[in-house]
Amino acid sequence: MHHIESLLSARLFLQPRLSGDRIIFISNLSGRLSLYAMKYGGSVPEPLLPPQIALQNPHLLGGEPFVVFDKLGKIVVMLDRDGDENYQPVWIPIQGGYPQPVFGDFFHDYRVLLQDFDTERNLLYLSADSKKVSLIEAYQGNVETGELVKLGESAYGCDPLAVSSDHSKVILIDQYTIGDQTLYLRTRETPQRKLIYGIPLEQREPGQSIPLTGIRAAKFINADRALLLTTTLFQDTGGLGILDLERPEVIQPVEIAGTAHKGAGELTSLKRLKQDRLLLGYNIDGCDWYYEGKLDAASARFEIEHTVCGEGLTANGVVESISYDAKADRYALAFSSATSPTQLYTVEGRQRDVIRSHTNERVLGIDSDLLSAGEDASFTSFDGQRVSARLYLPAEKLGFRGPRPLVYYVHGGPQSQERPDFAWFSMPLIQFLTLNGFAVFVPNVRGSTGYGLQYTKQVDRDWGGKDRLDHVHAMTVHLPKDARVDCNRAGVVGRSYGGYMTLMLAGRHPELWKAAVDMFGPYDLLTFFERIPETWKPYYRIALGDPDVPEERQFLIERSPRTYLPNLACPLLVIQGKNDPRVVEKESSDLVEDLRRQGKQIEYLMFENEGHDVLKYENRVTCYNAITNFFIKHLQP
């Protein structure tokens, strides 16, 4: 018999930063995520925050979780309260201490994200979401003096995207839905932001076709007279482009030469290293690759010189984060795979061929050959759309015989991707389920990221539509062909949007399931919309539907699980965090109360000190055991 505690004995090591001869990182060594430091090469980690403080999962943060200001002897950390996501910038001494507000109580009525920084000039660039109105404000903040300069405001983001070398120019980006963006320039001389690219939403004609820019990152180049940016204007999976600030109406494509990867995926990131050196990141078939190189702006060509990640020790997995130390000329990164916990590595040497391991995390008491690496299980859906998927089966050495009962796992987002990432909630669950005799199917249906912008956009204004039919096709056509899987003993589980889809599948297709587990999924799209933060509502009016428009309100009712769950025919386990701001606890308690009144078999697990995730050790043990035991009871592996 295997225990979830064995899998969770492999601690998380995340977000490493090099600071002199130390590595500063986030870990759950104490059972909750916190900040630590250890010597380069390894030492006993030193806690930098008081033990009662818990950090948020960096996956959910939407910005930098902390920044080390060596010259000031300070670390700026973004803190919330047990998952409520009301992040505030605080500072601690570089040797650790009790957090103090960086800017007093100025951001008391805001949720703040740390978007960019300059440790040489002690500057931060922040996005501040109002808690009262649908407005997001951008600021430059000086960590040394506490001074704040407002850069702009918008209902659609106003996020600092790029900063010039002398900080006199800032590019601000508004995003209406994923890939649909406008760029603005704010200068020291003209503080009012000025539109430089794209068509603002209020200036668009009804039905006007707008090219999707798909911009994820940008950096100033050519003495701050132009931008190098990532964009989908020239290829759906992303590439590079140059925007001349004197002629910003046209973006010039940039050739990228020297990539070593094979397979399908996306260009995901662009980072400046030092001087003219840059770092490109790719997600290829769910696995990360990073390349270092130089841009020749005159010929519009980016020449890759070194592969930093994607081969050797960092092959076939996910880089949770990567940072660069210009003084030491080396990288620090956190890497994991489907079967290997997160490890901290540094990549160094002129040829980037020296990889040093600084941790040796492992699963205790479970041989590595008992874990499942998964196999490709991609399929062609009902309308000819290819859907990437993986199937995780119990290892042969476990001795299970016959077709295995199926757990169908639906990722959240919806515009995200399930990847071979041991740092994320799902992978320990997948492994624990296979250890208990289950097959686990994990699809990235339309709407997922990682397969091009057009694939991702298919879920806009179609929640629970064609993506749901992808799942149904997998269950009724694709998976029944595999004799190793017993589709007559199937359960479905998902988190966030995956929880929403779990409820939709259980309500609209009850004949497919013997059990279902919903983790903080929206139950009623009307109440879901009412309860989300005010600054999120402009996005959801466009990407999901506007409840103030009668026909769109009817659409939200038609796409709500509440409409179909009277048809629920299997036991349902509902899991929720009390502090969740995305899908508030009332959404899940309404679901539980309504279905219990209808006589449905419902179990409810609510964590008082969690938000839109389950992060604390004791809660993770309870959660993983509850899900697995629920499926054991009803699917009988």
Explain what this protein looks like in three dimensions.
By secondary structure, the protein is an alpha+beta fold. It has 11 helices and 37 strands. Strand 36 (572-577), helix 10 and strand 37 (602-607) form a beta-alpha-beta unit. The longest helix is centred in the C-terminal third of the chain and has 19 residues, at 617-635. The model has no long low-confidence stretch (mean pLDDT 96).
- What fraction, in percent, of the residue positions are helical? 10-25%
> What is the oligomer described by this structure?
single chain
Radius of gyration: 24 Å
Report the biggest beta sheet as strand number plus sense, adding barrel if it closes: 9 strands, mixed
Total strand count, please?
Answer: 37
What proportion strand?
A: 35-45%
Q: Distance between the terminal alpha carbons, to the nearest Å?
A: 13 Å
Uncertain spans: none
Throw out a few tags for this protein.
globular; 8-stranded mixed sheet; 9-stranded mixed sheet; alpha+beta; 637 residues
